[in-house]
Design goal:
Layout lengths: L2 H15 L10 E2 H10 L7 H9 L17 H13 L4 H15 L16 H14 L10 H14 L9 H4 L23 H11 L6 H16 L9 E2 L5 H15 L8 H14 L15 H13 L7 H4 L2 E2 L2 E2 L10 H13 L5 H9 L16 H14 L4 H12 L14 H13 L6 H16 L12 E2 L3 E2 L2 H12 L2 H9 L1
Antiparallel strand pairs: 1-2, 3-4, 5-6
Length: 504
């Protein structure tokens, strides 16, 4: 084993050992930070957070990742509202006007609703539009007509719901307009694993003595969530926290895809994580944390990992997430998820169970150029394409895999990397893992593309470096920092290391 591989494995070992620690690590959020600063500002005051917020504005006036346009309106409007409220300098006034101009130019992105709109945006954005109107800010509503109608449909379903705590509804509690009773606070001290929802609850409940202990717990939740971003700026918040089981289950799943789950150098850190994951899995599945409702994505990933580790699994834990011809993260979702369905296909294929309908769902959504786009939980086509390739590879042979490989070769950059915004480590890792997953079935051209991608990963490896790229989709785009780093390292470690491990 060469010295570089030894360094990579050491780096990966530390990450695996820390999976789930401190509730998981995650990038800061524009939307949630703006909401915290507006509704429950830290004791140190809002200005450090507002300065950070202003620095995140792009030259076009908007906030959020330009590569995922429909995930920009919510953080932009939230930032505009926060800056407007505290507006005392020309800098903030200009940022507000530039943000409003950006929103007026966004109409084309909302003419139709795709499956990859951000989490809860159909509830959250209409609420912010109402608040902007109350402040006299002119934000066009017509372009959001379809989204507002979807929100009205969602609200009709809310009225039929009996449980809110620890559910997706609690995650968007700030938009529901319901009484701030104590029942919505979960064991983390927060509301819906959402800093924005928790801040809104704190504002709504007021300083009454009946809720004083809960207020302290909620404020402590916001402090812990802020620490998970690593920014060390009061008021900075992630889009969701904690993410213990999400970070754990998907990191192990990606190690499995990379052929590293059985690596002898990793067993002393991998096996405790597998054992912990096994005890956390409930009959109804696994959630992003033990305090949140189980979801189909974490459940499928966990079941695949446990099956690969030789532990007994009960596929019935996944059955609650079946929806006609696909699988969903949460029952009652209005938009299907390609990646969740791909994970379900992977599991069912491994277990030798019927999966023809969800498999057809995946194949039918492939574009003519071989890619899969428009996933609900990740904005990178490389992520979605990786998940589809892995699922279909474990199912029956399909021409869709060959078309996907052709598409990946077509979109490889001259430097050997891949990425929507130019070559990025996380997206190149997705491509490398997808091509590796095919093993000896790769064509010579794919072998050459893989070698170039692997070379790019090794040349661009930087210890302790955190990429600013945010591929994952919540209320806005974000990066699960520790998980993303595991994915990058898994693709950077030479394939010979994983092959040697699997043989051993």
């Amino acid at each position: 084993m060469d010295h570089t591989t030894d360094i990579l494995l050491t780096d990966l070992r530390h990450l695996i050992a820390g999976l789930g620690a401190a509730g998981g690590l995650i990038s800061p959020s524009i939307y949630d930070t703006a909401q915290v600063l507006r509704l429950a500002p830290p004791a140190q005051g809002p200005w450090p957070g507002l300065n950070w917020l202003a620095e995140q504005q792009h030259a076009d006036g908007g906030w959020g990742d330009p590569a995922i346009p429909n995930a920009r309106d919510l953080p932009t409007l939230a930032a505009v509202l926060a800056l407007h409220i505290y507006c005392t300098r020309e800098r903030e006034r200009k940022a507000v006007q530039d943000g409003l101009s950006f929103l007026r130019r966004q109409a084309s992105h909302w003419s139709t609703l795709s499956d990859d709109i951000p989490v809860g945006v159909e509830l959250l954005l209409p609420r912010l539009l109402d608040e902007a109107a109350e402040l006299g800010l002119k934000v066009p509503r017509g372009q959001y007509a379809s989204l507002i109608a979807l929100g009205a449909r969602r609200r009709s379903l809310v009225a039929q719901t009996t449980r809110i705590s620890g559910t997706p509804l609690a995650h968007s509690w700030e938009a529901l307009g319901i009484a701030p009773d104590l029942s919505v606070v979960d064991s983390t001290g927060g509301v819906g694993h959402s800093p924005a929802a928790t801040a809104a609850w704190l504002r709504a409940v007021g300083p009454g003595s009946a809720a004083s202990a809960a207020r302290v717990a909620a404020q402590r939740y916001l402090e812990q969530a802020a620490a998970a971003t690593g920014q060390n700026i009061p008021g900075i918040a992630p889009t969701v926290w904690p993410i213990v089981r999400f970070e754990q289950s998907f990191a192990l799943y990606m190690l499995l895809i990379a052929g590293l789950l059985d690596h002898p150098r990793l067993q002393d850190v991998v096996q405790p994580q597998i054992a912990d994951l096994s005890q956390a899995l409930r009959p109804g599945g696994l959630g992003m944390s033990d305090a949140f409702l189980p979801d189909g994505d974490d459940t499928a990933a966990a079941l695949i990992v446990l099956h690969a580790a030789g532990r007994p699994v009960d596929e019935r834990a996944l059955s609650a997430f079946a929806a006609d011809d696909h699988f969903c993260a949460y029952p009652g979702e209005l938009q299907p998820s390609l990646s969740v369905t791909a994970h379900a296909v992977h599991l069912l294929a491994l277990l030798g169970l019927e999966h023809s309908r969800p498999r057809s769902f995946v194949v039918a959504r492939q574009l003519r150029d071989g890619r899969w786009l428009g996933d609900k939980w990740n904005g990178s086509w490389l992520y979605t394409t990786l998940q589809a390739i892995v699922a279909l590879h474990h199912s029956q042979p399909s021409a869709a895999i060959g078309a996907a490989v052709d598409g990946m070769l077509l979109y490889q950059h001259e430097d050997g990397g891949w990425g929507t915004r130019g070559s990025t480590s996380e997206e190149t890792a997705y491509a490398v893992l997808a091509l590796r997953a095919l093993g000896p079935d790769r064509a010579p051209a794919a072998d050459q593309a893989l070698l170039r991608g692997e070379r790019w990963m090794r040349v661009n490896y930087r210890p302790f470096f955190v990429s600013p790229v945010t591929c994952w989709i919540g209320k806005e785009t974000y990066q699960p920092t520790r998980l993303a780093r595991v994915i990058e390292l898994a693709a950077t470690i030479p394939v010979e290391a994983s092959v040697t491990a699997s043989v051993a």
